[in-house]
Amino acid sequence: MEDVFLFELGYGIQLAAALLLLYRISTMKNIYGLSIDTQVCFLMGTLSRFIWMMDTRLVETWFSYLELWFNLAVQIALCYYCYIYWYTTTMHAPRYLRAPVLALVALLLAFLFHPGYEWVSGQVLVSFTMYIEAMGLIPQLWLMRKMMDIEPITSHYVGLLVISRAVRMVFWGVLYMQGEHFLCLFMADLLHTVFCADYLYLWCKKLRTGGRLVYAL
What is the value of pTM for the model shown? Predict the structure, then answer.
């Protein structure tokens, strides 16, 4: 059960990040500095989890169901807020980083690189979830690169997402030591962490010393 705990811990941290972002949008009534495409990608990943989770050990724990339903509800709420407050931001990711493009790339990668040897299986959806979540954060990072100053709650939101993936990398490591090798899925989370490595450093520095977080190039 240790591996299941680590997997759910990662998504629990992601849920905490999403709740923090939901609070930020509901109180400030704007989505300035936030990527709509990132939220759409995470919603697609959550919907995908609903399908493949039933074929895994995750169904053995009540927390998995609870976390998944909460994550779905929060992601739907975030996408809804992004829809009604879309006019409060003029910054959007370029076309090649939009959610439909990222979804197609994630689906292609899932078909090419997934556990097992069958072209069509539940493992394709597992891989799709990992890839869409990894690439889904790229539009948000791109937007933050264009901003001179990152709003504090937004910075904590992204920081928690990075930590959630770091926890899941530990999960893949535990599975590897148990003889279950999912290197293609591990690589998705590894790429996610690499994408965010410099941001994680700046965020941890901000937590330690205070002050503004400047992520611009």
Answer: 0.89
